[in-house]
Amino acid sequence: MSIARSEYTYCAPTIPTKLRVVRDGDAVRTAAPGELPAVVGAGLRVPTLTGEVEYANLDHAASTPSLVSVKAAVDTALQTYSSVHRGNGYASRVTSAWYEQARVEVGRFVGAREDDLVVFTRNTTDSTNLLARSLPRGTEVFVFETEHHSTLLPWQQARGVQVTTLPVPSSIEHALEDLASALAASVASHRLVVVAGASNVTGELWPLADVVAVAQRHRARVLVDAAQLAPHRAIDLAASGIDYVAFSGHKLYAPFGAGVLAGRRDWLDSSAPYLRGGGATARVSTDGVAWATGAARHEGGSPNVIGAIAVAAACASISAHREAIEAHEASLAERLRSGLDVIPGVDTWSIFGDDHDRVAVLAFTIERFDSSLVSAILSAEHGIGVRDGKFCAHILVDELLEDPWGDTPATAVRVSLGLANTAEHVDRLVAAVAELAANGPARRYTRTDEGWVADGDERDLSLPLPW
Ligand code: PMP
Questions:
Q1: Would you say the CB of residue 248 lies under 6 angstroms from ligand 1?
Q2: Any idea where the domains of the chain sit in the sequence?
Q3: What architecture does CATH give domain 47-60+322-454?
Q4: Domain covering 74-320 in this structure, CATH number
Q5: DSSP letter at 321?
Q6: What CA–CA distance (Å, rounded) separates 166 from 173?
Q7: What mean pLDDT value characterizes the chain?
Q8: Any residues with CB less than 8 A from the CB of 49 and at least 6 apart, and which?
Q9: Residue 202 in contact with ligand 1 by CB distance below 6 A
């Protein structure tokens, strides 16, 4: 096999000094300090059975709308859009510089240690799978059954890895005790504790400092699934001792397609590349392949540059407006919880107890109502978007709900708040749930293959194609 000289050398992801982007603190602010960053699509009007209302998007935990600042960053980046690490043209060098600068921005967002890697992935699921494939042989993984499937399942297929699954705990104390005794019993050469920063079902926060303390006592590393934490609370790898963090851009006010795995370099540098191919190699010859080290090793193929820039732009804006975001969400979450708490027949669900600290995510049920019917009614009659079901956390939801009303499925409705929400959205949801629990829906609904449909639903759900 003959290989042209230019293919031998991997273009290391350094930032050309002359093209280094100078960060302008104000560029990431779409609002004054103390104000909230604006989202794309705010004020969207949607049809209901009887008219039209402003859309109340109470489903931020699934995907957030994009920030206006993210859209602006993407528009700017598209002007010079070109290949990364593969060209010497001006646009290619600018794009390469921005791609690497995006890595720096994300590293700053998660408080990365100097030697940590920031790898761009597709989403949280991709990040946990990447780490699963990077674990040294002989690693034992400790994971609670409370976890989202994307954090619970990847370890089971990893070669040379043993998984210890810990039951849904009844309290934080039990969780930490269970974890400590499982770790103490482990004879594995490497240990990894996997835990969500915030539950995607109940919004409850795991006490990460305590988890890290227990893990470190037993020489275990910690991966935090921050899919639901990163949009709401600051993360600091260096200060907290957390070893790895994974999250998704599309839950952090960037569009779909890019996620992050950040953390310790050694396991990632020693494992097989995630995708074998161009970009992941240091040298290729007829004698074999030397794989790159660093993030490039696991970013084979042309990377999602625009996705990475979008994630970085979101990180920059969220950091710049952190206090305002937290205050906004705390006040809406309190309004929501206190509103739902007093409605007869409505239950809200918790792993650790009602008073446990949480982000603005809440799961509720209405006695004897199928949750998918509730979400269909909220949409059809009130223009409200929520999610229903088991939220890819089947074991947790089955354990929490435990078949409460015989033939009604053990599913819940999830309300998750964020930057697209106003107090009016929350009040509308609370009033709608109160009305439903007391008097039932305004129309008759029939279950069809496409879910629950209201009698006389003439909403036109078709829009012209966006392209
Ligand atoms: N972990 C948690 C806690 C989540 O909420 C989600 C998404 N619902 C995931 C992991 C998976 O994220 P993604 O679908 O972006 O890979």
A1: yes
A2: 47-60+322-454, 74-320
A3: Alpha-Beta Complex (3.90)
A4: 3.40.640.10
A5: T
A6: 14
A7: 92
A8: 380, 381, 442, 443, 454, 456, 457, 459
A9: no
